[in-house]
Amino acid sequence: MIEVLCLLLGRILLLLVGGYELMWRLRERLNALVVRSYDLWRSRAAREAHERRVLADCRSQLTKTPQHLVLVISPGDAGVDAVLLSRIFDFALDVGIKHVSLYDRRAKGRGYVDMADLCRSTSADTGSCLKWPPVASPSKLENQPKNGQKTNGYVNGSHSPQLQLHQISASDGHALIADVCRELYEGRETDLVQSLLKQKREALTEQISDMLSKRLGFEAPEPELGIVFARQTCTYGLLPWHARFTEFHTHPSGRHFDVEAFASILCKYSRCEQRWGT
């Protein structure tokens, strides 16, 4: 009798959890539909003016700005498309972020976005490094800080009018680290590896970082901020070596992402205190 009651209570609990999950998804979809309808109702000029105001207010509150932002898209996410990514790139450009990486774990044909389709590669680009926008527009140049103008307490006279975009694949994660470690092990008798082993650990760490950067095909600082589009916080194997000190923020799948959400994440990152050692 007790076993039957336990099974019954377990099924009731599963039904309650499933019902809550369904209601949560319906609520998020309805909220996203309302916000998108409002964006469609407004003119493009009004929407862009509103985004500029929000980002300008955000910049005035930031005490630090990430130089490298990484976007992680879960395999089951269906809300992040090329249009949303283009807007995120514009947001990042306006606040002064210099590098944006995209790690899309969706399969091709199921929402996967290839950044090569969004922007062109120049002769100066190497590997998977691209530029955004493809052609720097005069309006973007006007919005950038002038030489000598201070932004968040720092002189930002060398701000680039274009973003450096990087496409990261699943093979750039653990498999890349394994290849580097295998190469170091095979060359363990060489003078280079022997000298690294005799030095402090930082020398070997720097050597591994350099080897990984060369294999990635682009040069960029380690990402300081990551936005995960998923139901739970998971990096899905994203560059485990480079993302050691990355501050991750999860944006639930199905929830509408707009300039307010982007500014909120930047403000949270600006307020967080990161410590290394004592």
TrEMBL record:
EC number(s) per entry: 2.5.1.87
The reaction(s) this protein catalyses: n isopentenyl diphosphate + (2E,6E)-farnesyl diphosphate = a di-trans,poly-cis-polyprenyl diphosphate + n diphosphate
Enzyme class name: transferase
Cofactor: Mg(2+)
Main location: endoplasmic reticulum
A Gene Ontology cellular-component term: endoplasmic reticulum membrane
Subcellular location, record wording: Endoplasmic reticulum membrane
Signal peptide: none
Functional pathway: Protein modification; protein glycosylation
SUPFAM superfamilies linked to this entry: Undecaprenyl diphosphate synthase
Taxonomy, superkingdom: Eukaryota
InterPro entries to which the protein is assigned, alphabetical: Nus1/NgBR, UPP_synth-like_sf
UniProt KW keywords: Endoplasmic reticulum, Magnesium, Membrane, Transferase, Transmembrane, Transmembrane helix
GO molecular function list: ditrans,polycis-polyprenyl diphosphate synthase [(2E,6E)-farnesyl diphosphate specific] activity
Family: Belongs to the UPP synthase family.
Protein name: ditrans,polycis-polyprenyl diphosphate synthase [(2E,6E)-farnesyldiphosphate specific]
